[in-house]
Amino acid sequence: MRNKIIIGNWKMNKTPKEVKAFFKEFNKATFKARPKTIYGIAAPACDLSYALDERPNKKFVISSQDISKHLSGAYTGEISALMLKEMGVTYAIIGHSERRTYHHETNKDINEKAKIALENGICPIICVGETLEEYESKKSKKVVETQVKECTKGLDVTKVVIAYEPVWAIGTGKTATNDYAQQMCAVIRKLTSDKTLIQYGGSVTPESIEELLKQPDVDGALVGGASLKVDSFIKLIEKK
Ligand code: 13P
Question: How many domains does the chain have?
Answer without folding.
Answer: 1
